């Protein structure tokens, strides 16, 4: 019989147990090479050498949740909390627009200050000022009704990582109050409402097994998201996972390649967490099938405060510096950073 990675390349419609077998290939250099090569081939069929860019605006680090891995969890009393004003958010967009960004991502903790009405106002304001730009929300779990209001106000896309598709593992990463069922339900609601949806998970989070990762892949195949965000888990010093080891760059790259083959047209970022674990992590991500980068547009004065994990990169740079740096990084591996919206194809 052919090696499992060759079977996967021929027909990626794998079951959980086949994914388990596939993930074990992450140790086999020949398998890794072949999978990355195939991932790059596929990404170039749909997207050529283009890399899309999203301007990330981290507008609040207040959060009502208490996820054990996250630096801005509610019970971290050392976190210095901030909220951007509407004017500050608009200034980030303006700056981003000038730099060529045509997608803005509003990301924040689950912050009750931003009621549905306040969010709708901000969404409308951004879409009125920049009608040709895509607006992505990444603001956590909400009701169907809230998601509907945001969609009607003009939001185009929504990022909500599922974090892990295994119930037991989910329990080990989150307090009792949160549930995987609710999370998955949110993702399906978002799909129903016509958002381009992004799911995803951390790689190497505490207690994660190969079986868990296989379940993540099964779930992604079932959900068919337009976007998938994955990055290595990185410990944050003020959480109970402070002493846990970080996730591996190699495993993240391997999974990026697998996800590209599984969901050929997916919009797949080379994440900041990957760049934090390895100075060339994002470049390596692009060479494993990623086709999106998400530089930071948040005001420099707040960047360090949006600290989900330790040693996060790009916290000292002005947006323009980040944009320039990213352009060079993308070009260094033979790709081209483009300004178009980069919708799902
Ligand atoms: N390490 C890596 N990624 C993290 N995230 C949160 N905390 C960490 C961490 N310690 C990720 C989660 C979340 C996204 C916004 O950031 O997957 O969905
Ligand atoms: Fe942000 Fe390099 S991409 S400074």
Structure description:
This protein has 345 residues and is of the alpha/beta class. It has a single domain, classed as Aldolase class I (TIM Barrel), CATH 3.20.20. Helices cover 43% and strands 11% of the residues. The chain has helices spanning 4-10, 16-24, 29-47, 86-98, 116-129, 144-153, 167-173, 180-192, 210-223, 249-262, 272-277, 281-286, 300-303, 319-332, and strands at residues 50-53, 55-60, 103-108, 134-138, 157-159, 196-199, 202-203, 227-228, 231-232, 292-293, 336-337. The strands form three sheets. Strands 2-3-4-5-6-8 form a six-stranded parallel beta sheet, covered by helices on one side. It is globular. The relative contact order is 0.17. 5'-deoxyadenosine is lined by residues 69-70, 161, 163, 202, 231, 233-234, 236, 273, 308-309. Its cofactor is [4Fe-4S] cluster; [2Fe-2S] cluster. InterPro entries: Aldolase_TIM, BATS_dom, Elp3/MiaA/NifB-like_rSAM, FeFe-hyd_HydE_rSAM, HydE/PylB-like, rSAM, rSAM_sf. It comes from Coprococcus comes. GO terms for molecular function: 4 iron, 4 sulfur cluster binding; metal ion binding; transferase activity.
């Amino acid at each position: 019989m052919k090696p499992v990675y060759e079977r996967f390349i021929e027909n990626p419609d794998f079951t959980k147990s086949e994914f388990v077998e596939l993930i074990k290939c992450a140790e086999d250099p020949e398998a890794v090479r072949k999978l990355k090569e195939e991932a790059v081939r596929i990404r170039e069929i749909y997207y050529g050498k283009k890399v899309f860019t999203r301007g990330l605006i981290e507008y609040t680090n207040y959060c009502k949740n208490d996820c054990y891995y996250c630096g801005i969890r509610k019970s971290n009393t050392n976190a210095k909390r901030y909220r951007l004003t509407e004017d500050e958010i608009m200034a980030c967009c303006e700056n981003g627009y000038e730099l060529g960004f045509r997608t803005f991502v509003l990301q924040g903790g689950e912050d009750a200050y931003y009621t549905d009405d306040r969010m709708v106002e901000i969404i409308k304001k951004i879409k009125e000022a920049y009608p040709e730009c895509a607006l992505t929300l990444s603001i956590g779990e909400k009701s169907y009704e809230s998601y509907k209001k945001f969609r009607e106000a003009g939001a185009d896309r929504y990022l909500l990582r599922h974090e892990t598709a295994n119930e037991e593992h989910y329990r080990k990463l989150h307090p009792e109050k949160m549930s995987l069922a609710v999370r998955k339900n949110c993702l399906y609601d978002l799909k129903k409402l016509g958002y381009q949806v992004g799911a995803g998970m951390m790689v190497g989070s505490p207690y994660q097994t190969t079986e868990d990762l296989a379940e993540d892949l099964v779930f992604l195949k079932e959900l068919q998201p337009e976007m998938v965000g994955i990055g290595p888990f990185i410990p944050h010093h003020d959480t109970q996972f402070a002493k846990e080891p970080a996730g591996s760059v190699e495993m993240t790259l391997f999974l990026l390649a697998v996800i590209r083959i599984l969901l050929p047209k997916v919009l797949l970022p080379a994440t900041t967490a990957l760049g934090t674990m390895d100075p060339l992590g994002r470049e390596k991500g692009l060479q494993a099938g990623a086709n999106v980068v998400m530089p930071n547009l948040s005001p420099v004065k707040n960047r360090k405060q949006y600290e989900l994990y330790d040693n996060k990169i790009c916290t000292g740079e002005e947006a323009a510096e980040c944009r320039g740096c990213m352009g060079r990084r993308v070009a260094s591996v033979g790709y081209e950073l483009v300004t178009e919206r980069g919708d799902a194809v």
